[in-house]
Amino acid sequence: MRRYSEGATALFLLLLCLTSNRSVNAQSVLDSTPNLSALVDFDRSQSDFKVVIHRYEQDRAALYRRYDVSLSPVRRERLQRFYADWQAQMTALDFGKLNHEGQIDYVLLRNRITFELEMLRQEEQSVAEMAKLVPFARTLEELQESRRDREGIDGREAATVLNQTASEVESLTANLKSNPAARIPIKAVDAERAARHVDYLSRMLEGWNRYFSGYDPLFTWWVPQPYERLQVALESYSKQIRTTYAGDAANGPVMGDPIGEEGLRAHLANEMIPYSAEELIAIAEAEFAWMETALVKASEEMGYGSDWKAAQEAVKNLAVDPGQKPAVVLEIEKQSIDFINEHDWITLPPMASEIWRMEMMSPERQRVAPFFLGGETIQISYPTNDMTHDEKLMSMRGNNPHFNRATVHHELIPGHHLQGFMSNRFNEHRGLFGTPFWTEGWALYWEMVLWDAGFPRGPEDEIGMLFWRMHRAARIIFSLSFHLGKMTPSEAVDFLVDRVGHERANAEAEVRRSFAGDYSPLYQVAYMMGGIQFRALYKELVDGGKMTAREFHDAVLKGGSMPVEMVRAQLANLPLTRDYESKWRFME
């Protein structure tokens, strides 16, 4: 059978999909029962490159499932070949024959592949830095790789490998425990990364063992005892690594993994942000200063003079009683929608208002997410009966109605819920390029819009809305400073408490969530910077007389998730080249 290089078939199919661009009325495709002809016309106006994106995404996901051994050199090499092949195929494509939407997707995919290759390079470097603590890793990784290669198993040989590895791990543990002074010199963050990989190897072995155990008679006869011994050894070793090295972190209750200046440059390039980390911190500090001035003004109106922290304390103590929080959410949601409709800012699909739901957040979840979370279901953070007295008070104070003045519309409409509603219906293929600068930036942008239009009803609301806006500026400062090695997680907690007014437990939860590894390193930066980007784009296109506010906001949501610079290229119909690089200095 003839073999084709990856991506070739998808790119050939692309040529069958070239279509003309048409404008479609927003309302006709957003009604609860949309005009089907309008939807067909809308689809014909979409990207020539959409089928290519879908093929890339499916092939990449398939390789991740097949080569599932985390940090393995075999996996890295296979993914590098995959990305290089796609780069070659894209270079051979006639960029000029794509429609403008297709060119946008081409630039986005090219940018994404460049980023993926850089992440593989940095992964290889990280593995090398922790390798001295896990010299046995490849031995165990090869067991799973052999299974994925559909090879058979020799039970006696497998038992020998497990037994020898258990002895090696036990010896490493004993050395760390008995002679900490002679430990391997390695940074605390690399030690934590090594401990996490040891934990991962243990979980990987569970699946490997489950595949053979009970089904292969010789495996089942030879392997159980060495396997159990090794699992105990791995658990003890990961604990000992943390015990031995965590003291160097000086990070209090939170351990993070800073990516450094080089890592930040790669992530900023992927997000199409042509600013350095230091420049972004300077922008955040200027925003911070503006908010401190606004807080003093609100404080004076409340009778607290320039002591805005005292005014903030008074606002925190206006929390409603337990059980009343859902009613507060409903009231603010209605006020937000009425306010938006009065200004004719955006098309609101009736179904979006109909289907959103509320749930209460568990005490366990509130320890890492002490404030509201949103989307189609808004998750309400408020105290439960089994919390301690201090936990109850902190949860209530941090989620008072005036602080909620910003969080409800941020999470629901026109924020994340409306975003998700639209993203699931229009240009869904751009989910591959999902970025918090679009997602969180959009929701934060609306906090700015509603503030400027007079949504706060008095100084208490202003204090509440400014708390969140200051929080987002602080996120830029502490997260980038952390990744640059200029601030520890414990210092970030102090910063949130001292400069923003967080409850300490809430600040610890916020920092823990920021550095736990579940978010991209720029996620916390993206709220305010994305909001600033959308605000600059509105000024350029709406204030510049090129679009109405409704046309602008509808177009952003229908265009799908992508770096805001590409939103600008789409809405302003800017010319693109196959080697387009980020250049929009949105603060100048």
Structural write-up:
A two-stranded parallel ribbon has the order 1-2. α1 runs antiparallel to α4 and α6 (100-130) packs antiparallel against α12 (260-270). Helix content is 65%, strand content 1%. It folds into 3 domains: 8-130, no CATH class; 150-249, no CATH class; 264-571, no CATH class. With 588 residues, it is mainly α. The longest helix has 31 residues, at 100-130. It is globular, with a radius of gyration of 27 Å. The model is unreliable at 1-23 and 248-253 (pLDDT under 50). It starts with 7 loop residues before the first helix and ends in a 17-residue tail after the last helix. It has helices at residues 8-14, 26-30, 36-44, 50-66, 73-92, 100-130, 137-148, 155-178, 188-212, 217-222, 224-245, 260-270, 277-302, 308-316, 325-343, 350-355, 363-366, 389-398, 404-411, 416-423, 436-452, 459-483, 489-500, 504-515, 523-541, 549-559, 564-571; strands at residues 357-360, 377-380. β1 (357-360), α17 (363-366) and β2 form a beta-alpha-beta unit.
